């Protein structure tokens, strides 16, 4: 049916050593991890050209996708990302120093602030999004479109089934 892949080798090895762990959950975990690693690698390669880290990109892209005025409260930004509040804070500091984001006080609540993309930040973010999108397109271009759409739909079902329990533990 399909050519064996690296995951099949891993599963076969575990089947010999600890057969009870060599099931479908391990196959799904390994294949999604390897696929994610491939996306992460091509993303990091493109971000490196712009001097951005994945955390920087997460913040910039999140602010850009919320639409004008491209701003969020730090807590909302952290909640939208897979970062800790400390990780978000460190990345925001780097992005402020680079001139890509600015911190603004909240006129309605003096104890609160906003993180906002600067005009230069909007430009860099859009360039980063375009570069990473092209890299992702190159990565998946050998997958027939119908297969890629099916994979996406099946992953949607899988994520819907597991994400509540995972997100609640964060």
Brief write-up:
The chain has 170 residues and is mainly alpha-helical. It has 7 helices and 3 strands. The chain has helices at residues 6-17, 24-49, 54-65, 74-80, 85-98, 119-140, 145-168; strands at residues 71-72, 101-106, 109-117.
Give the topology, please.
Elements: H1 6-17, H2 24-49, H3 54-65, E1 71-72, H4 74-80, H5 85-98, E2 101-106, E3 109-117, H6 119-140, H7 145-168
Antiparallel strand pairs: 1-3, 2-3
Helix pairs in contact: 2-6, 3-6
Describe the structure.
- The chain is mainly alpha-helical.
- The protein has one domain (6-168): Orthogonal Bundle (Arc Repressor Mutant, subunit A), CATH 1.10.10.10.
- The protein is built from seven helices and three strands, in the order αααβααββαα.
- It has a three-stranded antiparallel beta sheet with strand order 1-3-2.
- β2 (101-106) and β3 (109-117) form a beta hairpin.
- α2 (24-49) crosses α6 (119-140).
- This is MarR family winged helix-turn-helix transcriptional regulator.
- Pfam families: MarR_2.
- Residues 25-160 form the HTH marR-type domain.
- The CATH architecture can be named as Orthogonal Bundle
Helix run count: 7
What is the residue-mean pLDDT, rounded to a whole number?
Answer: 91
Trace the largest sheet across and list its strands. Answer: 1-3-2
- Strand tally: 3
Report the order of strands and helices. HHHEHHEEHH
C-alpha geometry: elongated
Major β-sheet annotation: 3 strands, antiparallel
At the fold tier of CATH, the topology name is Arc Repressor Mutant, subunit A
Proportion of residues in β-strands: 5-15%
Structural class: mainly alpha
Domain count: 1
Q: What would you give as the CATH superfamily?
A: Winged helix-like DNA-binding domain superfamily/Winged helix DNA-binding domain
Q: Which percent range fits the helix content?
A: 55-70%
Q: What is the CA–CA distance across the termini?
A: 39 Å
